[in-house]
Inverse folding.
Protein backbone atom coordinates (compact mmCIF):
# COMPACT_ATOMS: atom_id res chain seq x y z
CA UNK A 1 0.00 0.00 0.00
CA UNK A 2 1.21 3.48 -0.77
CA UNK A 3 2.36 5.58 2.13
CA UNK A 4 0.59 8.84 2.53
CA UNK A 5 1.77 11.82 4.55
CA UNK A 6 -1.47 13.51 5.47
CA UNK A 7 -1.42 16.37 7.93
CA UNK A 8 -4.40 16.28 10.32
CA UNK A 9 -5.61 19.46 11.97
CA UNK A 10 -8.17 19.81 14.75
CA UNK A 11 -9.98 23.15 14.77
CA UNK A 12 -11.77 23.81 18.05
CA UNK A 13 -13.62 26.52 19.89
CA UNK A 14 -13.02 26.62 23.63
CA UNK A 15 -15.39 28.50 25.90
CA UNK A 16 -18.84 29.92 25.47
CA UNK A 17 -18.77 31.75 22.12
CA UNK A 18 -22.21 31.51 20.56
CA UNK A 19 -21.22 31.41 16.90
CA UNK A 20 -18.41 29.84 14.94
CA UNK A 21 -18.40 31.43 11.52
CA UNK A 22 -14.71 32.32 11.80
CA UNK A 23 -13.71 28.81 12.83
CA UNK A 24 -15.72 27.31 9.97
CA UNK A 25 -14.13 29.68 7.45
CA UNK A 26 -10.67 28.63 8.65
CA UNK A 27 -11.59 24.94 8.62
CA UNK A 28 -12.86 25.32 5.07
CA UNK A 29 -9.75 27.23 3.93
CA UNK A 30 -7.48 24.54 5.36
CA UNK A 31 -9.57 21.87 3.67
CA UNK A 32 -9.14 23.71 0.38
CA UNK A 33 -5.39 23.79 1.01
CA UNK A 34 -5.44 19.98 1.07
CA UNK A 35 -5.46 19.23 4.80
CA UNK A 36 -7.65 16.77 6.68
CA UNK A 37 -9.48 19.02 9.12
CA UNK A 38 -11.51 17.78 12.09
CA UNK A 39 -14.02 20.34 13.27
CA UNK A 40 -15.73 19.79 16.61
CA UNK A 41 -18.30 22.57 17.01
CA UNK A 42 -18.79 25.22 19.66
CA UNK A 43 -18.62 25.19 23.48
CA UNK A 44 -15.71 22.83 23.93
CA UNK A 45 -13.95 22.42 27.25
CA UNK A 46 -10.13 22.15 27.28
CA UNK A 47 -10.56 18.49 28.25
CA UNK A 48 -12.80 17.80 25.21
CA UNK A 49 -10.37 19.52 22.85
CA UNK A 50 -7.36 17.61 24.16
CA UNK A 51 -9.26 14.31 24.09
CA UNK A 52 -10.29 14.96 20.48
CA UNK A 53 -6.67 15.77 19.52
CA UNK A 54 -5.59 12.51 21.19
CA UNK A 55 -8.21 10.31 19.52
CA UNK A 56 -7.61 11.89 16.11
CA UNK A 57 -3.78 11.86 16.50
CA UNK A 58 -3.76 15.50 15.42
CA UNK A 59 -0.55 17.05 14.09
CA UNK A 60 -1.90 20.56 14.72
CA UNK A 61 -4.55 22.06 16.96
CA UNK A 62 -6.00 25.47 16.11
CA UNK A 63 -8.16 27.30 18.65
CA UNK A 64 -10.61 30.05 17.82
CA UNK A 65 -11.97 32.33 20.51
CA UNK A 66 -13.96 35.55 20.59
CA UNK A 67 -14.95 35.85 24.23
CA UNK A 68 -11.67 37.24 25.60
CA UNK A 69 -10.99 34.21 27.79
CA UNK A 70 -7.93 33.12 25.78
CA UNK A 71 -5.40 33.80 28.59
CA UNK A 72 -7.45 31.48 30.77
CA UNK A 73 -8.44 28.77 28.27
CA UNK A 74 -5.47 28.44 25.89
CA UNK A 75 -3.00 27.42 28.67
CA UNK A 76 -5.54 24.94 30.03
CA UNK A 77 -5.75 23.26 26.62
CA UNK A 78 -1.95 22.96 26.68
CA UNK A 79 -2.10 21.37 30.16
CA UNK A 80 -4.74 18.87 29.09
CA UNK A 81 -2.74 17.93 25.98
CA UNK A 82 0.37 17.34 28.10
CA UNK A 83 -1.62 15.18 30.50
CA UNK A 84 -2.42 12.93 27.54
CA UNK A 85 1.14 12.74 26.25
CA UNK A 86 0.32 15.06 23.36
CA UNK A 87 3.08 17.61 23.96
CA UNK A 88 4.39 17.48 20.39
CA UNK A 89 1.27 19.02 18.83
CA UNK A 90 1.81 22.27 16.92
CA UNK A 91 -0.52 24.89 18.41
CA UNK A 92 -2.02 27.99 16.84
CA UNK A 93 -4.89 30.27 17.71
CA UNK A 94 -6.98 33.16 16.52
CA UNK A 95 -9.85 35.46 17.36
CA UNK A 96 -10.19 38.63 19.36
CA UNK A 97 -6.69 38.51 20.83
CA UNK A 98 -4.94 41.82 21.67
CA UNK A 99 -1.35 42.14 20.51
CA UNK A 100 -0.05 42.53 24.08
CA UNK A 101 -1.37 39.05 25.00
CA UNK A 102 0.63 37.29 22.29
CA UNK A 103 3.91 36.85 24.26
CA UNK A 104 2.10 35.12 27.12
CA UNK A 105 0.42 32.70 24.73
CA UNK A 106 3.73 32.03 22.99
CA UNK A 107 5.25 31.30 26.36
CA UNK A 108 2.82 28.43 27.00
CA UNK A 109 3.50 26.91 23.60
CA UNK A 110 1.44 28.65 20.90
CA UNK A 111 3.57 29.09 17.78
CA UNK A 112 1.11 31.14 15.72
CA UNK A 113 -1.39 33.69 17.00
CA UNK A 114 -3.71 35.49 14.59
CA UNK A 115 -5.59 38.51 15.89
CA UNK A 116 -8.24 40.68 14.25
CA UNK A 117 -7.21 41.61 10.73
CA UNK A 118 -5.38 38.36 9.96
CA UNK A 119 -6.63 36.85 6.71
CA UNK A 120 -7.37 33.17 6.07
CA UNK A 121 -4.54 33.41 3.56
CA UNK A 122 -2.10 34.36 6.36
CA UNK A 123 -3.20 31.38 8.42
CA UNK A 124 -3.04 28.86 5.58
CA UNK A 125 0.41 30.15 4.62
CA UNK A 126 1.59 29.83 8.23
CA UNK A 127 0.30 26.25 8.43
CA UNK A 128 1.98 25.36 5.15
CA UNK A 129 5.27 26.73 6.40
CA UNK A 130 5.16 25.11 9.85
CA UNK A 131 3.17 21.89 9.62
CA UNK A 132 4.49 18.43 9.15
CA UNK A 133 2.82 15.06 9.58
CA UNK A 134 4.12 12.90 12.41
CA UNK A 135 5.22 10.11 10.12
CA UNK A 136 6.19 6.79 11.59
CA UNK A 137 9.29 7.76 13.48
CA UNK A 138 7.62 10.35 15.68
CA UNK A 139 7.66 9.71 19.36
CA UNK A 140 4.42 8.47 20.80
CA UNK B 1 8.78 -9.97 19.29
CA UNK B 2 5.86 -7.68 19.80
CA UNK B 3 6.62 -4.01 19.35
CA UNK B 4 6.22 -1.62 22.24
CA UNK B 5 3.31 0.13 20.55
CA UNK B 6 1.39 -3.13 20.04
CA UNK B 7 1.97 -4.12 23.65
CA UNK B 8 0.70 -0.80 24.89
CA UNK B 9 -2.35 -1.10 22.62
CA UNK B 10 -3.20 -4.50 24.05
CA UNK B 11 -2.89 -3.06 27.55
CA UNK B 12 -5.47 -0.43 26.70
CA UNK B 13 -3.19 2.61 26.17
CA UNK B 14 -5.17 5.23 24.24
CA UNK B 15 -2.16 7.07 22.87
CA UNK B 16 -0.87 3.81 21.41
CA UNK B 17 -4.29 3.11 19.86
CA UNK B 18 -4.41 6.57 18.33
CA UNK B 19 -0.85 6.33 16.91
CA UNK B 20 -1.42 2.84 15.53
CA UNK B 21 -4.59 3.96 13.77
CA UNK B 22 -2.54 6.62 11.96
CA UNK B 23 0.26 4.23 11.05
CA UNK B 24 -2.28 1.81 9.63
CA UNK B 25 -4.30 4.50 7.86
CA UNK B 26 -1.21 5.96 6.23
CA UNK B 27 0.16 2.59 5.11
CA UNK B 28 3.43 2.62 7.05
CA UNK B 29 5.42 -0.64 7.41
CA UNK B 30 5.24 -0.11 11.20
CA UNK B 31 1.45 -0.21 10.88
CA UNK B 32 1.55 -3.47 8.95
CA UNK B 33 3.91 -4.99 11.48
CA UNK B 34 1.54 -4.02 14.29
CA UNK B 35 -1.42 -5.53 12.40
CA UNK B 36 0.53 -8.78 12.18
CA UNK B 37 1.16 -8.71 15.91
CA UNK B 38 -2.32 -7.83 17.10
CA UNK B 39 -4.47 -9.61 14.53
CA UNK B 40 -5.02 -12.70 16.69
CA UNK B 41 -6.45 -10.42 19.40
CA UNK B 42 -9.16 -9.11 17.06
CA UNK B 43 -12.42 -10.77 16.02
CA UNK B 44 -14.27 -10.23 19.30
CA UNK B 45 -16.08 -6.97 18.57
CA UNK B 46 -19.54 -6.67 17.10
CA UNK B 47 -19.06 -4.50 14.01
CA UNK B 48 -22.05 -2.36 13.11
CA UNK B 49 -22.34 -0.40 9.87
CA UNK B 50 -24.47 2.74 9.78
CA UNK B 51 -25.31 4.16 6.37
CA UNK B 52 -27.86 6.43 4.72
CA UNK B 53 -28.15 9.65 2.73
CA UNK B 54 -26.47 12.95 3.61
CA UNK B 55 -28.35 14.68 6.39
CA UNK B 56 -30.35 11.60 7.38
CA UNK B 57 -29.03 11.78 10.93
CA UNK B 58 -26.31 9.12 10.87
CA UNK B 59 -23.95 10.90 13.30
CA UNK B 60 -26.75 11.80 15.69
CA UNK B 61 -28.02 8.23 15.65
CA UNK B 62 -24.51 6.81 16.15
CA UNK B 63 -24.13 9.15 19.10
CA UNK B 64 -27.41 7.95 20.64
CA UNK B 65 -26.53 4.30 20.02
CA UNK B 66 -23.13 4.81 21.66
CA UNK B 67 -24.80 6.18 24.80
CA UNK B 68 -27.23 3.27 24.84
CA UNK B 69 -24.48 0.66 24.38
CA UNK B 70 -22.55 2.33 27.22
CA UNK B 71 -25.63 2.10 29.45
CA UNK B 72 -25.72 -1.61 28.67
CA UNK B 73 -22.11 -1.96 29.79
CA UNK B 74 -20.28 -2.15 26.45
CA UNK B 75 -17.18 -0.23 25.41
CA UNK B 76 -17.54 1.57 22.08
CA UNK B 77 -15.34 2.45 19.11
CA UNK B 78 -16.60 4.72 16.35
CA UNK B 79 -15.13 5.15 12.87
CA UNK B 80 -16.70 8.16 11.14
CA UNK B 81 -15.99 8.63 7.44
CA UNK B 82 -16.37 11.88 5.51
CA UNK B 83 -15.44 12.59 1.88
CA UNK B 84 -12.09 13.79 0.55
CA UNK B 85 -12.23 16.57 -2.03
CA UNK B 86 -11.48 15.18 -5.49
CA UNK B 87 -9.78 18.47 -6.37
CA UNK B 88 -7.72 19.59 -3.38
CA UNK B 89 -7.49 16.20 -1.60
CA UNK B 90 -8.41 17.99 1.61
CA UNK B 91 -11.32 16.93 3.81
CA UNK B 92 -13.56 18.48 6.43
CA UNK B 93 -14.34 15.82 9.01
CA UNK B 94 -17.37 17.06 10.91
CA UNK B 95 -19.07 14.00 12.37
CA UNK B 96 -17.74 14.72 15.86
CA UNK B 97 -19.95 17.83 16.08
CA UNK B 98 -22.92 15.53 16.74
CA UNK B 99 -20.93 13.36 19.14
CA UNK B 100 -19.57 16.04 21.47
CA UNK B 101 -20.83 14.64 24.76
CA UNK B 102 -19.19 11.27 24.05
CA UNK B 103 -15.75 12.86 24.32
CA UNK B 104 -16.10 12.92 28.11
CA UNK B 105 -16.57 9.14 28.29
CA UNK B 106 -13.19 7.35 28.55
CA UNK B 107 -14.71 4.13 27.19
CA UNK B 108 -15.73 5.68 23.87
CA UNK B 109 -13.07 6.20 21.20
CA UNK B 110 -13.96 8.12 18.04
CA UNK B 111 -11.79 8.33 14.95
CA UNK B 112 -12.62 10.42 11.87
CA UNK B 113 -11.38 9.27 8.49
CA UNK B 114 -11.39 10.76 4.99
CA UNK B 115 -12.28 8.65 1.94
CA UNK B 116 -9.00 9.54 0.16
CA UNK B 117 -10.38 8.67 -3.25
CA UNK B 118 -12.22 5.46 -2.36
CA UNK B 119 -15.72 5.31 -3.87
CA UNK B 120 -17.58 2.67 -1.88
CA UNK B 121 -18.59 4.97 1.00
CA UNK B 122 -15.67 4.05 3.27
CA UNK B 123 -11.99 4.96 3.59
CA UNK B 124 -9.35 2.69 2.04
CA UNK B 125 -8.00 1.57 5.43
CA UNK B 126 -11.40 1.20 7.16
CA UNK B 127 -11.07 -2.54 7.67
CA UNK B 128 -7.60 -2.24 9.20
CA UNK B 129 -8.73 0.59 11.46
CA UNK B 130 -11.63 -1.57 12.68
CA UNK B 131 -9.18 -4.44 13.34
CA UNK B 132 -6.99 -2.20 15.50
CA UNK B 133 -9.97 -0.94 17.55
CA UNK B 134 -11.17 -4.53 17.88
CA UNK B 135 -7.79 -5.68 19.19
CA UNK B 136 -7.81 -2.72 21.59
CA UNK B 137 -10.81 -4.36 23.23
CA UNK B 138 -13.80 -2.32 22.05
CA UNK B 139 -16.95 -4.46 22.44
CA UNK B 140 -18.95 -2.62 19.82
CA UNK B 141 -17.48 -0.81 16.81
CA UNK B 142 -19.75 1.43 14.76
CA UNK B 143 -18.65 2.42 11.28
CA UNK B 144 -20.47 5.44 9.86
CA UNK B 145 -20.20 5.80 6.08
CA UNK B 146 -20.15 8.99 4.06
CA UNK B 147 -23.57 10.27 3.06
CA UNK B 148 -24.57 7.41 0.79
CA UNK B 149 -26.60 7.54 -2.39
CA UNK B 150 -27.71 4.33 -4.00
CA UNK B 151 -24.54 2.44 -4.62
CA UNK B 152 -22.21 2.85 -1.63
CA UNK B 153 -22.63 -0.70 -0.44
CA UNK B 154 -19.11 -1.56 0.71
CA UNK B 155 -20.12 -1.21 4.36
CA UNK B 156 -21.93 -4.57 4.14
CA UNK B 157 -18.54 -6.21 3.55
CA UNK B 158 -17.07 -4.59 6.66
CA UNK B 159 -19.92 -4.88 9.15
CA UNK B 160 -21.58 -7.86 10.86
CA UNK B 161 -24.80 -5.88 11.10
CA UNK B 162 -25.71 -3.21 8.56
CA UNK B 163 -28.23 -0.50 9.48
CA UNK B 164 -29.63 1.56 6.59
CA UNK B 165 -31.26 4.87 7.50
CA UNK B 166 -34.12 6.37 5.53
CA UNK B 167 -35.82 9.74 6.01
CA UNK B 168 -39.19 11.08 4.89
CA UNK B 169 -39.41 13.17 1.75
CA UNK B 170 -36.81 11.47 -0.40
CA UNK B 171 -38.78 10.13 -3.29
CA UNK B 172 -41.59 7.87 -4.33
CA UNK B 173 -42.07 4.16 -3.84
CA UNK B 174 -40.03 3.24 -6.91
CA UNK B 175 -36.94 4.22 -4.88
CA UNK B 176 -37.63 1.35 -2.51
CA UNK B 177 -37.51 -1.29 -5.24
CA UNK B 178 -34.36 -0.09 -6.98
CA UNK B 179 -31.26 -2.22 -6.52
CA UNK B 180 -28.52 -1.09 -4.21
CA UNK B 181 -28.32 0.30 -0.74
CA UNK B 182 -31.65 -0.95 0.63
CA UNK B 183 -30.67 -4.49 -0.27
CA UNK B 184 -27.71 -4.53 2.13
CA UNK B 185 -29.82 -3.71 5.20
CA UNK B 186 -30.08 -6.13 8.09
CA UNK B 187 -32.08 -3.45 9.87
CA UNK B 188 -33.97 -0.55 8.30
CA UNK B 189 -34.45 2.73 10.14
CA UNK B 190 -36.88 5.53 9.39
CA UNK B 191 -35.28 8.48 11.15
CA UNK B 192 -36.95 11.87 11.70
CA UNK B 193 -40.09 9.83 12.30
CA UNK B 194 -41.80 12.90 13.76
CA UNK B 195 -41.79 14.54 10.32
CA UNK B 196 -44.67 14.37 7.84
CA UNK B 197 -44.40 11.43 5.47
CA UNK B 198 -42.53 9.15 7.88
CA UNK B 199 -45.43 6.73 8.15
CA UNK B 200 -45.68 6.47 4.37
CA UNK B 201 -41.97 5.70 4.03
CA UNK B 202 -42.20 2.99 6.67
CA UNK B 203 -45.23 1.48 4.92
CA UNK B 204 -43.50 1.54 1.53
CA UNK B 205 -40.43 -0.12 2.97
CA UNK B 206 -42.68 -2.84 4.44
CA UNK B 207 -44.36 -3.50 1.12
CA UNK B 208 -41.40 -3.30 -1.21
CA UNK B 209 -38.61 -4.45 1.05
CA UNK B 210 -36.08 -6.81 -0.51
CA UNK B 211 -36.23 -10.27 1.01
CA UNK B 212 -33.68 -10.80 3.77
CA UNK B 213 -30.37 -12.17 2.55
CA UNK B 214 -30.39 -14.43 5.55
CA UNK B 215 -32.82 -17.25 6.19
CA UNK B 216 -34.35 -16.97 9.63
CA UNK B 217 -33.84 -13.22 9.90
CA UNK B 218 -36.71 -10.88 9.18
CA UNK B 219 -35.52 -7.31 8.52
CA UNK B 220 -37.12 -5.04 11.13
CA UNK B 221 -38.13 -1.46 10.34
CA UNK B 222 -37.45 0.82 13.31
CA UNK B 223 -38.73 4.38 13.59
CA UNK B 224 -36.41 6.82 15.36
CA UNK B 225 -36.19 10.50 16.23
CA UNK B 226 -32.43 10.57 16.76
CA UNK B 227 -32.02 14.12 18.05
CA UNK B 228 -34.03 13.27 21.15
CA UNK B 229 -33.00 9.61 21.32
CA UNK B 230 -36.50 8.49 20.31
CA UNK B 231 -36.52 4.82 19.32
CA UNK B 232 -32.81 4.40 20.07
CA UNK B 233 -33.33 1.67 22.71
CA UNK B 234 -35.54 -0.22 20.20
CA UNK B 235 -32.84 0.06 17.55
CA UNK B 236 -30.19 -1.11 20.03
CA UNK B 237 -32.42 -4.11 20.87
CA UNK B 238 -32.73 -4.94 17.16
CA UNK B 239 -28.96 -4.69 16.65
CA UNK B 240 -28.27 -6.98 19.61
CA UNK B 241 -30.94 -9.39 18.41
CA UNK B 242 -29.28 -9.53 14.98
CA UNK B 243 -25.94 -10.27 16.62
CA UNK B 244 -27.51 -13.13 18.60
CA UNK B 245 -29.09 -14.43 15.40
CA UNK B 246 -25.72 -14.38 13.62
CA UNK B 247 -23.99 -16.24 16.45
CA UNK B 248 -26.70 -18.81 17.09
CA UNK B 249 -27.42 -19.64 13.44
CA UNK B 250 -23.76 -20.07 12.57
CA UNK B 251 -24.10 -17.21 10.07
CA UNK B 252 -21.40 -15.19 11.86
CA UNK B 253 -18.72 -17.73 10.93
CA UNK B 254 -19.95 -17.70 7.34
CA UNK B 255 -20.01 -13.88 7.22
CA UNK B 256 -16.49 -13.70 8.61
CA UNK B 257 -15.16 -16.32 6.21
CA UNK B 258 -16.59 -14.36 3.28
CA UNK B 259 -15.05 -11.18 4.67
CA UNK B 260 -11.68 -12.88 5.08
CA UNK B 261 -11.78 -13.93 1.42
CA UNK B 262 -12.71 -10.45 0.19
CA UNK B 263 -10.11 -8.74 2.35
CA UNK B 264 -7.37 -11.13 1.30
CA UNK B 265 -8.18 -10.66 -2.37
CA UNK B 266 -8.47 -6.87 -2.04
CA UNK B 267 -5.11 -6.60 -0.29
CA UNK B 268 -3.46 -8.98 -2.77
CA UNK B 269 -4.89 -6.93 -5.65
CA UNK B 270 -3.47 -3.73 -4.14
CA UNK B 271 -0.04 -5.27 -3.60
CA UNK B 272 0.11 -6.73 -7.11
CA UNK B 273 -0.82 -3.37 -8.60
CA UNK B 274 1.81 -1.57 -6.52
CA UNK B 275 4.51 -4.00 -7.68
CA UNK B 276 3.39 -3.88 -11.28
CA UNK B 277 3.36 -0.08 -11.32
CA UNK B 278 6.74 0.15 -9.63
CA UNK B 279 8.41 -1.99 -12.28
CA UNK B 280 6.48 -0.45 -15.19
CA UNK B 281 7.33 3.04 -14.02
CA UNK B 282 10.99 2.16 -13.56
CA UNK B 283 11.31 1.10 -17.18
CA UNK B 284 9.05 3.79 -18.61
CA UNK B 285 6.82 1.09 -20.10
CA UNK B 286 3.68 2.48 -18.48
CA UNK B 287 3.98 5.90 -20.10
CA UNK B 288 4.64 4.38 -23.50
CA UNK B 289 1.49 2.26 -23.24
CA UNK B 290 -0.57 5.23 -21.98
CA UNK B 291 0.58 7.21 -25.01
CA UNK B 292 -0.25 4.38 -27.38
CA UNK B 293 -3.78 4.01 -25.97
CA UNK B 294 -4.32 7.79 -26.03
CA UNK B 295 -3.31 7.86 -29.72
CA UNK B 296 -5.66 4.91 -30.30
CA UNK B 297 -2.87 2.73 -31.62
CA UNK B 298 -3.76 -0.09 -29.24
CA UNK B 299 -6.87 -0.72 -27.15
CA UNK B 300 -6.75 -0.69 -23.32
CA UNK B 301 -7.24 -4.46 -23.02
CA UNK B 302 -4.27 -5.28 -25.22
CA UNK B 303 -2.20 -2.63 -23.46
CA UNK B 304 -3.05 -4.13 -20.06
CA UNK B 305 -2.03 -7.59 -21.28
CA UNK B 306 1.32 -6.18 -22.34
CA UNK B 307 1.68 -4.36 -19.05
CA UNK B 308 1.11 -7.52 -17.05
CA UNK B 309 2.80 -9.98 -19.42
CA UNK B 310 6.00 -8.07 -19.91
CA UNK B 311 6.20 -5.13 -17.51
CA UNK B 312 8.06 -2.36 -19.21
CA UNK B 313 7.53 -3.93 -22.63
Amino acid sequence: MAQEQKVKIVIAKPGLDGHDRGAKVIARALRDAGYEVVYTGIRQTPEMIAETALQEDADLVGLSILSGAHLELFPRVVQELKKRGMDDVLLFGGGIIPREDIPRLEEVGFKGIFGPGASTHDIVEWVQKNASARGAASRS
Amino acid sequence: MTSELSQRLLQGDKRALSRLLSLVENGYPEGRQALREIFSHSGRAHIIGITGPTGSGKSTLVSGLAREFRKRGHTVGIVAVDPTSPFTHGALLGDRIRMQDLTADPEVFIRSMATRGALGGLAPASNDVVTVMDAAGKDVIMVETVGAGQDEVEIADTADTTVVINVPGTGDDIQAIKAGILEIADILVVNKADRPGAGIIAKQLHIFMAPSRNEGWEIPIIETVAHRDGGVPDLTDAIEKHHRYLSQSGRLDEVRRQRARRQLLAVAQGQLLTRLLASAEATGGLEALVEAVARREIDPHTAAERLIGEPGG
